[in-house]
Every structure is written in structure tokens, then in C-alpha cells.
Amino acid sequence: MKMKTKKAVSKRFIVTGSGKIKHHHTNRNHRAFGKTTKQKRHSRKDAILNHASRKLIGRALPYKGMNK
Fold first, then answer.
1. How far apart are CA 22 and CA 7, in angstroms?
2. How many Cα atoms occupy the beta-carbon half-sphere of 67 within 13 Å?
3. Cα–Cα–Cα angle for 8, 57, 45, rounded to 5 degrees
4. In the chain, how many H helices and how many E strands?
5. How far is CA 2 from the centre of its chain?
6. 44: closest CA among 65, 61, 29?
7. At 23, phi and psi to the nearest 5?
8. 68 versus 22: which is more confidently predicted?
9. Exposure of 46 by Cβ count < 10 A (0-12 exposed, 13-18 middle, 19+ buried)?
């Protein structure tokens, strides 16, 4: 049986060429006036997902080269 890709996950996570998973930082839009400039600056760039969460996201993206 063919596996289905979770569409919500595929829109939020990007698989790089080396197999790492990139995602956007959280807490960026709402109530930004309460955050320091440093917090807002560091959250602009994408982050690499940690190893523990990689397996969970990989199951939701079967055709992105994650299930190897």
C-alpha cells in the first residue's frame, strides 16, 4: 500500500541535500514587542531539527528521502 505524505508537515519542514531537516523558529509573529531584539534577530534564520525529532518528522515525509 502506498504511504501518504502528511501535508501539514511537508509545508513546515524542508529536507536539505545532506538529509537534515530545516524548520522556522517559533514565537516570531505574536507579541513581538515583549521579546528582546536579540531573540527576534536569532529567530529570523531557519534552524536544524534535533536528532530525536528527526525520526518523528521522517515518518510523516516518506517520499522526501527520510525513510532510509
1. 16
2. 9
3. 80
4. 3, 3
5. 24
6. 29
7. -150, 165
8. 22
9. middle
